[in-house]
Structures are given as C-alpha cells and as structure tokens.
Amino acid sequence: MKWKLRIPMILFIFGLVSGIYQYYPNIIIFQENYFLNSLQFLASIAIPIYILEKTQINEKQVNFLVGIMLISSGVLIDYLMV
C-alpha cells in the first residue's frame, strides 16, 4: 500500500520543531511578546513545509510503514526532548 509523503512529513515537522523548542527554550528570539513568540514558532513550522511543497518532496509515494515510522519518530522526538 502506497501513501503520499505529505501528511507524515507535516506531522514529523510538528514533532521535530516542538521538540527543538522544548529542549532549547533560549532559541526563542522574542521572549517577552507572546504574539511574536507564537509567530516565530509558526514560521519555523511553515518554512520547512513550504520548502517541501516547492521541491515536490511531498508528492512522492512511500510505503505505508515508512509513513507510520516518520509520524512515530516525530512523536518520539517531541517526547524525548522535553
């Protein structure tokens, strides 16, 4: 069974960016302003997703197990980097 790489990569990026922001809290540039803090977090999620869309990596067909492994590795990265 084949699956497009779009959903697994998006969920992997969510877990990866969330884990990085939890492990390195000083990476946030705007510490005082909550709006700019949220904007930085959303931009750090949106930029890799945009790059994947422009390079057509998300259109590749992969095995279902590879997609599940990508999703679970994103969750695992988020869980372990707390």
Description:
The chain has 82 residues and is mainly alpha-helical. It has one domain (2-80). The protein has 3 helices and 2 strands. The protein has helices spanning 6-23, 34-54, 64-80, and strands at residues 2-4, 61-63. The protein has a two-stranded antiparallel sheet. The longest helix has 21 residues, at 34-54.
Largest beta-sheet characterization? 2 strands, antiparallel
- The span between the termini is 34 Å
- The rounded Rg comes to 14 Å
SSE order in H/E notation?
A: EHHEH
Helix share bin: 55-70%
Mean pLDDT: 93
Shape label: flat
Provide the domain count. 1
Q: How does the helix and strand content classify structurally? A: mainly alpha
Tell me the fraction of residues in β-strands, as a range.
Answer: 5-15%
Report the count of strand segments: 2
Spatial order of strands in the largest sheet: 1-2
Poorly predicted ranges: none
